[in-house]
């Protein structure tokens, strides 16, 4: 499978954190489905100096680039305007 490092940076407007928290249950449910299918390896929230969520980092894996695109089209943090920018890079988890 092809592995990817996904880094999503949240919008920074006044309502961004509240919006994130409202969408978070949908995002977590989506990740649970990805994990069941073997696509989700790890992830978590990035925090600012005050400990508030400002983005996300995940390692995902998909058989094809088309599957990655389908995920992007359905990820709640993308479709519901939580992440202002998303950076996706090919990645390889170390086999230690």
Q: Based on CA inertia axes, which overall geometry fits? A: globular
Q: How can the largest sheet be summarized?
A: 4 strands, antiparallel
Please give the count of helices: 3
Kindly provide the radius of gyration, computed on alpha-carbon positions and rounded to a whole number of angstroms: 13 Å
Helix-strand string? EHEEHHE
Structural class: alpha+beta
Secondary structure layout:
Layout lengths: L1 E9 L5 H21 L3 E8 L5 E10 L2 H10 L1 H4 L3 E9 L5
Describe the structure.
By secondary structure, the protein is an alpha+beta fold. The chain has a domain at 12-58 and 72-86. It is 36% helix and 38% strand. It is built from three helices and four strands, in the order E-H-E-E-H-H-E. It has helices at residues 16-36, 65-74, 76-79, and strands at 2-10, 40-47, 53-62, 83-91. It has a four-stranded antiparallel sheet. Strand 2 and strand 3 (53-62) form a beta hairpin. The longest helix is centred in the first third of the chain and has 21 residues, at 16-36. The radius of gyration is 13 Å and the shape is globular. The model has no long low-confidence stretch (mean pLDDT 95).
Keywords:
globular; 4-stranded antiparallel β-sheet; 96 residues; 3 helices; alpha+beta
In short:
The chain has 96 residues and is an alpha+beta fold. It has helices at residues 16-36, 65-74, 76-79, and strands at 2-10, 40-47, 53-62, 83-91. Helices cover 36% and strands 38% of the residues.
